[in-house]
Amino acid sequence: MGRTVYVNGTYLDEAEAMISIFDRGFLMADAVYEVTSVLGGRLLNFAGHLARLERSLNELDMAMPMNADGLLEVHRELLRLNGIHDGLVYLQITRGNPGDRDFAFPDPETTPLTVVLFTQNKPGLAASPLAESGMKVVSVDDIRWGRRDIKTVQLLYPSMAKMIAKKAGCDDAWLVEDGLVTEGSSNNAYIVKGGKIITHELGNDILHGITRAAVLRFAREAQMEIEERAFSVSEAQQADEAFVTSASAFVMPVVELDGRAIGSGKPGKQTKRLREIYLEESLKTAI
Ligand code: PDD
Questions:
Q1: Domain count for the chain
Q2: Do both 22 and 73 map to the same domain?
Q3: Does 69 lie in the same domain as 176?
Q4: Is 209 in the pocket of ligand 1 (CB under 6 A)?
Q5: Which of 14, 28, 191, 235 is the most interior residue, by most CB within 10 Å?
């Protein structure tokens, strides 16, 4: 028996879990998702993830499949059934199975959304060795679509970018558009220069990271200066520090970009401090 997963109201073994070949998530990438991290059996920033889920669904004319309490209950039940202490919960929502293939959206009255949740067990998630060594990143062209603020399952290009990074002996890719870094393949990107934290402003070009919002809030509370604007690869290479944020990586130092060391080539002081503050503060509100 493998993991217990959730599919449309039922908890079942992953080997028994099935969705239709006509599901629009499969045929059209007509689906959104959320990833929430779990530390000590509790969910981090859950309210933020649900708020973004509702926004993603809204932007695509889909409704929340159940209320916040219902979704929290499913998350918690999966953590319990799978004995997860540290890990991740993935929530995938598609426009459902209209029974055939057609570009037009089906009537939501007759085609209910498909709702899938599954867990990943990651013991010691917050003690990643990469947080000590820092990540090496390589820049690649950002050729994704124009609504990156919607958390869709269109992850082919981010997967390709990760493969480019891997082939270059790096840990991840930073995506570059018009000479400026938008974000990482699956995280938001930052540099630190003269004590100031610089990161791409919100808009349609980047995903509005839940970790980003929390980290910027904690940084402001700690009197750190913040500038929300895009930066270039060469500006990043001349920065004092760099890092990325995401639900799965928290605050993760970046020490090299396109073969050039950033700052001392080791995780920066401010980055380390932000990681500590983020983990400490997020655990206080974990549910
Ligand atoms: N990725 N930008 C992109 C393109 C992302 O895919 C992600 C998250 C983020 C950070 O968002 P958040 O802080 O809300 O996790 C930014 C998740 C972790 C994933 O796909 O696994």
A1: 2
A2: yes
A3: no
A4: yes
A5: 191
Beta carbon of 186 within 6 Å of any ligand 1 atom: yes
Please identify, by atom number, the ligand 1 atom nearest to the C-alpha of residue 247. Answer: 15
pLDDT tens for 218-254 read: 999 999 999 999 999 999 999 999 999 999 999 999 9
Active site residues: 151
Taking the C-alpha atoms of residue 268 and residue 174, their distance in angstroms, rounded to an integer, is 18
Domain carrying residue 161? 130-285
CA of 206, closest atom in ligand 1: 2
Give, using CA atoms, the residue closest to atom 1 of ligand 1: 186
- Whose CA is closest to atom 16 on ligand 1? 187
- Classify residue 173 by burial, with Cβ atoms within 10 Å: 0-12, 13-18, 19+: buried
Predicted TM-score (pTM) above 0.90: yes
Single out the residue in 64, 89, 124 at which a domain terminates. Answer: 124
Alpha carbon distance 97, 233 (integer Å): 43
Question: 217 with 83, same domain?
Answer: no
Percent of the chain with pLDDT over 70: 100
Which CATH number belongs to the domain containing residue 169 in this structure?
3.20.10.10
Q: What's the rounded Cα separation, in Å, for the pair 273 and 265?
A: 17
**Burial of residue 167 (number of CB atoms within 10 Å: 0-12, 13-18, 19+):** exposed
By the 8 A CB rule, do 230 and 181 touch?
A: yes
Instruction: For ligand 1, pick from 207, 217, 243, 275 the residue to mutate: most ligand atoms within 8 Å of CB.
Output: 207
Q: Does residue 151 sit in the same domain as residue 268?
A: yes
279's enclosing H/E stretch is helix 269-285
**Two structure tokens written together for 195:** 């004590």
Does 1 have pLDDT greater than 90? Answer: no
